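Notes from hallway chat w/ T.B., transcribed later so I don't forget. T.B. wanted the structure written out for a chain they're using in a teaching module, and asked if we could keep both sequence and structure tokens in one place. Agreed to drop them here.
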Amino acid sequence: MSERAPRRAAWLRVLPWLVTAACFAFLYYRIDKPASAAGMSVVPYLIEGFRDVSWSRWLALMVPYSLFYFMIDSLVTWKVINWFNARVRFSDILPIRGSAYILSIVNEQVSKGAMALYLNRRYAIPGWQVGSSMLFIMFCEFYYLLGWATLGILISGESLPEEFRLIPRIAIGAAVLFPLFLLYFNGTWLKRSSLRDRPIFHAFRQSRAWQYGALILLRSPAFLSAVFVYTLALGLFGVPATFGQVLGYLPVIFFGAAAPLPMRSIAIVLWVILFPDHPREMSIFGLVMHNFFIFFNAAIGLIFLRRASRELLGDEPSARAADRP
């Protein structure tokens, strides 16, 4: 038994890189044909595509959007921590939320673990309770992306790929399951089940229906701003798109970007699949959009890193025990 575990762990470490390699092989194949038709190899063909973009205008879109996203993301984290874990100030959430973006470059789960450790040391909040709050945020994010994707299908379904017609059906199924989910965790349904009592479900036991809706509303301005920014950015890359199209595409792209793969490779491939007539432009677009976003957020984190490191790794005990909600 002890010999099999390391092999399984090594396989899991290699798998993301294998999938990423497959994604970039697919991109190479899609770009090679138009590059050959233009009498060029793939790399010079891509470089020529980079030259066609107004990068100053692109940065004028991306920098404010990234800063706005950071504030919304911090607001969501602050609100959930105050609901289910402890009374903390918004200004105290900014350092660890920003610094966690640095770790997100490597692994999103590690960044959430760092947030749990920080809140445990500073406010004496049990790590499992913080983990439960992070899980609550992820659960609400699924519903919020699914809801916006469904709206996008209703607005411009005829211009979207046929496969996207499955999204409203998934949304109906998720809507039917949600009341059962609430009834289970408030103890009304399956009363003898002990699964709900585990520490990792602390936030779900404490939550009320309105809090799910409130979190989706809090997160939505970030998504609407993303629709606006991505639509304009597509135009800078020479790819025409409407707000309705991007409203339908973007939730699926964000699901792909959430996959634990290097370089957000699934998201880049999805852009090429969704805009098959522009493989070069969409390969460049997906690469720079998603990777600028994560690295710029990491740069924001560097501003707060010294304070967060002092409070997380300092020899002093927790600054104070926070009030419980």
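Follow-up for T.B.: The chain is about 75% helix and 0% strand. Might be a good example for the class.
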